User: Which sequence fits this backbone?
């Protein structure tokens, strides 16, 4: 990890995780797993200690399925800081994961600005609020951006890097390099847009999913099966552009000329359906509860986490096999 | 398989695959793998024989990764018919997979109608054309519907069942039962809609993907990574409704009330971007060719097929473990 620390002469390469809920705890695992020292800080007394215990449990789960090898060593790299200043002291990078509210993030940025070193970067886990809405007032704003993960970040590699208008290009480059070195897959937006990339893509698909139910064309369960037994199989390892690039003899341009008209026509038919209103919510809620009673939500979430871990292991094995193939 | 054949006293349970290109060949594997006898027919002389040889090769690939056990026995259940009448003789079900053109499908349906038994169902692999556009004129039309697979159907279980206005409910029920018994995952539309479920969902996501590139917000490569390293991980085993049902403490209704507004706002911002025009096609084509040169398209398609096979095996193992867990 020497190539990370050498980028900032005044930092010792420590990562500060500020806000230690599920997202912050997940980030701590990402950085500690990669060999970096992590300091946890949370304004709520006792929260960082509870997070550190939870991190230990999660590392045990990851070891059990073969996703990490030495959980005790990883856990030992995660420490609880006495104060925000203590957490940020010598930090290369701060991952902020507090409540998704402009006022909360704005106040925290003032506190961070007061104690931050001259070369430390700050990434916010914000899933929807752009950094421009809570960093305008701080001196360190050129070193701030959004670094939005999918939960949990130690299983889903994606990180969306979204600069505010005043974020320095070197900040994006530096955080991108850090994320790549700790094994994440950073993507970059050139500027802020509501929902960033991930929730824009999820949002339009969800909008059509709700519309199919609203129009009585299909049940929520059948919409789900269409993805989990069909579309989602390719999307688990290829994006939408690569998928269509391989689905016409002449690649993506060939595909676009053949099918662009169909998709424009489908899109035109979706314009008037943007409601998510209460009667529709009640319909979908009833259909989901018939498939999964409310009492089983948390057990099913645990199932989802087991499946995500198994899929992460599967993908790691596949990618190792691909690399072996390429190096022949 | 006795429960399939007993549903139709006049049929011996044979499946007729009419049109033996990639899609028809894939269907033959699905039915033969499940123990059913399959007759291949293609109007192009020699095409069915070539398909049968290709099916043998594919079965070998599937055996190599552990997805089928006795490829020779499966292959032996697939025979080439001398004529359309021969293929349909005693057939429980006809899977039609000819060229995606209304005139071609209309003419073929007249031929099928002339030789079909009184209880045989006809499913079309049509990915976009509703059965109402090519079955209005035939006597057997109450027994016709669309049964649209994702390619290849022996790796992607999804089958979209889409009735024409005159399709009998018993036809939908019968074909659904058949598809379930051969291991596919049927979903039903209540009526025809352009793109059915699968391509409507893919279409809106693609539309937003193209828009992100058009607006210069992200590259095609980063859009792809956002799916393959993020969104697509959950969608490989959970649909969009189950995903959000597990993403808010109170389930899907709670999620909708929290985030419906965001998604409506995102949707409203996408209305004016429906072009897929030539300059944009050129931009995406250039970005894709930088990632994957045209000369490597077919090698990458072979990679995709290997990954799909491995994912199918992974999912089969996971589902077997889930069932063992449930039966405890």
Assistant:
């Amino acid at each position: 990890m020497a190539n990370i620390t050498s980028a900032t002469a005044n930092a010792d390469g420590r990562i500060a995780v500020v806000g230690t809920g599920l997202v912050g705890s997940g980030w701590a695992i990402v950085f500690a797993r990669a060999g970096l020292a992590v300091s946890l800080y949370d304004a709520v007394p006792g929260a960082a200690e509870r997070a550190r215990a939870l991190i230990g449990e999660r590392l045990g789960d990851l070891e059990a399925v073969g996703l990490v090898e030495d959980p005790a060593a990883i856990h030992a790299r995660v420490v609880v800081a006495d104060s925000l200043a203590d957490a940020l002291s010598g930090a290369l990078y701060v991952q902020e994961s507090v409540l998704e509210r402009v006022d909360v993030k704005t106040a925290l940025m003032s506190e961070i600005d007061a104690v931050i070193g001259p070369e430390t970067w700050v990434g916010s886990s914000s899933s929807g609020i752009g950094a421009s809405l809570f960093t305008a007032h701080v001196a360190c704003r050129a070193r701030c951006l959004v670094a939005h993960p999918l939960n949990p970040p130690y299983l889903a590699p994606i990180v969306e890097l979204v600069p505010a208008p005043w974020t320095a290009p070197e900040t994006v480059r530096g955080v991108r390099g850090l994320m790549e070195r700790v094994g994440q897959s950073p993507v970059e937006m050139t500027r802020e847009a509501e929902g960033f990339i991930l929730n824009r893509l999820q949002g339009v698909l969800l909008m059509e999913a709700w519309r199919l139910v609203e129009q009585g064309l299909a049940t929520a369960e059948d919409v789900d099966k269409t993805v989990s037994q069909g579309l989602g199989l390719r999307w688990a390892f290829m994006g939408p552009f690569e998928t269509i690039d391989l689905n016409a003899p002449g690649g993506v341009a060939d595909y676009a000329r053949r099918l662009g008209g169909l998709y424009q026509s489908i899109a035109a038919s979706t314009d008037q359906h943007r409601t998510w209103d209460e009667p529709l919510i009640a319909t979908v809620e009833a259909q989901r509860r018939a498939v999964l009673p409310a009492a089983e939500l948390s057990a099913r979430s645990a199932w989802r986490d087991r499946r995500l871990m198994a899929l992460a292991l599967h993908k790691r094995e596949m990618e190792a096999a691909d690399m072996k193939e390429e190096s022949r």
Observations:
- Residues 198-291 of chain B form a domain with the N-(1-d-carboxylethyl)-l-norvaline Dehydrogenase; domain 2 fold (CATH 1.10.1040.10).
- DSSP finds 13 helices and eight strands in chain B.
- The CA atoms of residues 63 and 69 of chain B lie 6 Å apart.
